[in-house]
Amino acid sequence: EAQVTQNPRYLITVTGKKLTVTCSQNMNHEYMSWYRQDPGLGLRQIYYSMNVEVTDKGDVPEGYKVSRKEKRNFPLILESPSPNQTSLYFCASSWMTSGSEQFFGPGTRLTVL
Amino acid sequence: SQQGEEDPQALSIQEGENATMNCSYKTSINNLQWYRQNSGRGLVHLILIRSNEREKHSGRLRVTLDTSKKSSSLLITASRAADTASYFCATDEKTSYDKVIFGPGTSLSVIP
Predict the structure, then answer these.
(1) Cα A94 to Cα A2: distance, rounded to the nearest angstrom
(2) Chain A, nearest residue to B45 by Cα
């Protein structure tokens, strides 16, 4: 089944404790992206990747890191989480950068205390 | 930056009625897409319309695009309770092919 998976689905952590949210897709998509969703703000793009070893900042990259060592995986790293990073996070992938449907993962609900 | 802005923020209608949601954006775009999200779950793609298209249909969905007004509308005809969800427009700016920007969404409630 074609899908985007994220892990973990739920995470409660404390300020400053490094964490990684994994994202994997099995559709051989080139484009992958991370978003955060906050009430009233819709989805805001954190980072995106056009292909292996090619990443770029979205609208809200501060406090996040990503890597794209393999085509299928695009982990999101929070080196020192803070409470303002409490949010619902979505990973997405698509065939190309512009003009193609994005497939979304189920979301990761992160709470930083 | 907020490229897409949906209007209204919330909409409540009776089953069988039509629902219309609007999206406005600020800069020139290559494409505009509409997505649907059921409460707290991942987004599902509904339809894509390119900047050189004016109207597109998919089942009960009709999307229009007016590039001169920088706006799009999504019409859901003969709504069903199962259409209850949030609807988002997403655009990619002409100057940045790789960024996708979502609006804050319209929350649709269809009352049986």
Answers:
(1) 12
(2) A101
Residue B38 to residue B87: CA distance in whole angstroms: 9
What CA–CA distance (Å, rounded) separates B36 from B106?
10
Q: How far is Cα B55 from Cα B44, in angstroms, rounded to an integer?
A: 20
Query: What number of other Cβ atoms are within 10 A of residue A83's Cβ?
Result: 10
Contact across the interface for B33 and A101, Cβ inside 8 Å: yes
Contact A99 B92 (CB under 8 A): yes
The answer to whether A102 contacts B100, with C-beta atoms less than 8 Å apart, is yes
Q: How many CA atoms lie within 13 A of B91 on its CB side?
A: 26
Which residues on chain A are in Cβ contact (under 8 Å) with B35? 102
Under the banding of pLDDT at 50, 70 and 90, the label for residue A47 is very high
Mean pLDDT for chain A overall: 94
Cβ atoms A109, A88 nearer than 8 A: yes
Backbone angles phi, psi at B86, to 5 degrees: -100, 145
Of B1, B31, B103, the CB nearest to A99: B31
Q: What is the pLDDT of residue B3?
A: 56
